[in-house]
Amino acid sequence: MPLRVRVCDQLDVVDDAVTAFAVEGVTWPVIVTRIGGELVAFPGVCPHEDVPLEDFGVIEGGEVRCRVHGYRFDLATGTCEHMPALNLRRYKITLVGSEVWVDLL
């Protein structure tokens, strides 16, 4: 059963930007952005070495890049161009009116 939590309102989401939202009880914030008109949500931590993407992530061409070690993750698939076995988890999004809810599990 999914753990669905409210993260933000759609008006709070910035296109092609790393915008982090704190979620009570979750260690890392949830990042929500809009790429090509589509909402995307993912953990606020680089899966390579737990670097906070809120501080060190940048979105470029449909990817999030961690500026610490340069790892890039495709936001459509979660795959990493540097290390194919490394994946960025993406959360399923449900819209309830203008609210953005994500399934953490």
Describe this structure in words.
- The structure is a single chain.
- This protein has 105 residues and is mainly beta.
- The protein has a single domain, classed as Rieske Iron-sulfur Protein (3-layer Sandwich), CATH 2.102.10.10.
- 4% of the residues lie in helices and 39% in strands.
- Strands 1-9-8 form a three-stranded antiparallel sheet, with no helix packed on it. The chain has a three-stranded antiparallel sheet with strand order 2-3-4, with no helix packed on it.
- Strand 2 and strand 3 form a beta hairpin.
- It is globular.
Q: Could you state the CATH homologous superfamily?
A: Rieske [2Fe-2S] iron-sulphur domain
User: Strand pairing plus helix content: what structural class?
Assistant: mainly beta
Tally of structural domains? 1
The span between the termini is 8 Å
Order of helices and strands: EEEEHEEEEE
Oligomer category: single chain
Low-confidence parts lasting 5 or more residues at pLDDT below 50? none
The top level CATH class name: Mainly Beta
Per the principal axes of the C-alpha atoms, what is the gross shape? Answer: globular
Tell me the number of strands.
Answer: 9
Roughly what percent helix? under 10%
